[in-house]
Amino acid sequence: MKIEIWSDVMCPFCYIGKCRFEDALQKTGHGKDIEIEWKSFQLNPDMKTDPSINIDQYLADIKGFSLDHAKELNAHVTQMAAEAGLTYNFDRAVVANSFNAHRFSHLAKKHGLGDAAEEALFKAYFTDGKNIDDAPTLIALGTAIGLDANEIKITLESDAYAEDVKHDVAEAQHLGIRGVPFFVMNRKYGVSGAQAVPVFEETIEKAFAEWQQENPKPSLQVIEGDSCGLDGNC
């Protein structure tokens, strides 16, 4: 069964949602039968990368909040993250456009490393205070998960995967997705937001049960004969 996840690297609820979803998936025991595909979404495509801006001040400015209120909101999200086992350091977060990070994710997905790329990007942004729009940073993150440094460099210096990112965004609009994280299970069920683990678990189980009915495993009548098995016995 396929589960598609739309997210943006700099969305704090996306990392929390990822953690809760993974906890739920492990509880279901269906992980080996489920394909996870990460999809791009940009909450603020016009954002200008500026490492000199404090993330609290940026939030206050863009939302029209007071600085104190922005700090309170980020402190609340930091506590939510801690309860999910994550460490958020908003005092170190770098204001950065996520478009190149999404292109990087598509490159990783091509090599079967999409999930590893998302985890690396989230940790880089929320925990380590890295600039996720910075080419050397993305190259370092990529090589750490097994990508080729030169391929990452060539990708970032070109417009490679730009259309893939735009396609994901357009697809989200077509499906009526207006916020992230958003989890689409078997193209039948959608879960919006960083829901509690039981919500994810229940929806995964429901979608998986229906998928199994639609895709039954073949039942063969076997006529036994001399053969060699995977255990090496012949």
Structural write-up:
The protein has 234 residues and is an alpha+beta fold. The chain has one domain: Glutaredoxin. The chain contains nine helices and four strands, in the order βαβαααααααββα. Strands 2-1-3-4 form a four-stranded mixed beta sheet, sandwiched between helices. A hairpin with a 3-residue loop joins strand 3 and strand 4.
Describe the protein's topology:
Layout: E1 2-7, H1 12-28, E2 35-40, H2 55-63, H3 67-83, H4 99-110, H5 114-127, H6 135-145, H7 149-157, H8 162-175, E3 182-185, E4 189-192, H9 197-214
Parallel strand pairs: 1-2
Antiparallel strand pairs: 1-3, 3-4
Helix pairs in contact: 1-9, 2-3, 4-5, 5-6, 6-7
InterPro entries: DSBA-like_thioredoxin_dom, Thioredoxin-like_sf
Domain DSBA-like thioredoxin: 3-204
Keywords: Isomerase
Task: Give me the count of strands.
Answer: 4
Order of helices and strands: EHEHHHHHHHEEH
Looking at CATH, which topology would you report?
Answer: Glutaredoxin
N-to-C terminal Cα separation, in Å? Answer: 35 Å
CATH domain class: Alpha Beta
Indicate the overall shape: globular
What structural category do the secondary elements indicate? alpha+beta
Mean pLDDT value: 95
* Second CATH tier, the architecture: 3-Layer(aba) Sandwich
Helical amount: 40-55%
Q: Low-confidence segments, ≥5 residues, pLDDT <50?
A: none
Number of domains: 1
